[in-house]
Prior knowledge:
This protein is an alpha+beta fold. It has helices at 4-9, 54-74, 115-127, and strands at residues 17-20, 24-28, 38-42, 79-83, 94-99. The chain has one domain: HIT-like (HIT family, subunit A, 2-Layer Sandwich), CATH 3.30.428.10. Strands 1-2-3-5-4 form a five-stranded antiparallel beta sheet. Guanosine-5'-monophosphate (5GP) binds at residues 4, 13, 15, 27, 29-31, 85-89.
Amino acid sequence: MPSIFTKIIKGEIPCYKVAEDDHFIAFLDINPNAKGHTLCVPKLEINRIFDMEEDHYLDLMRFSRKIAKALEKVVPCDRIGVSVIGLEVPHVHVHLIPINEMKDMTFQHKVQLSAEEMQDLAKRIAQEL
Ligand code: 5GP
């Protein structure tokens, strides 16, 4: 069965899209740790990040860095935290999280944003690319 992220990539499920190229997509996390929490996802559905072919993995990191640079221009923060977990969605994704404190990286502390705020954030990050 395709992952929820494959369904997003195919346009079967909506997302707040930040960027997309032939191989990767970035969209806002639906249950963000912090404002601007973004997921960078390879279009090829692979469960574990270190099973990716090396160049594909390095391209994902290059893509994620580009998104992180745009994200930090839009969301004031100390830095962009990076995490790879995949226990909830077994389709590789890099979490980019604007952080100020360690709790922002714990996945216990969540923030609520309106649909309008999410839409606006995705648009403003995209404009910085
Ligand atoms: P992980 O697999 O790394 O533990 O976490 C999966 C992440 O994907 C979570 O932060 C969760 O909020 C996010 N997520 C799960 N389902 C969806 C979805 O349908 N849309 C979006 N945008 N994010 C999702």
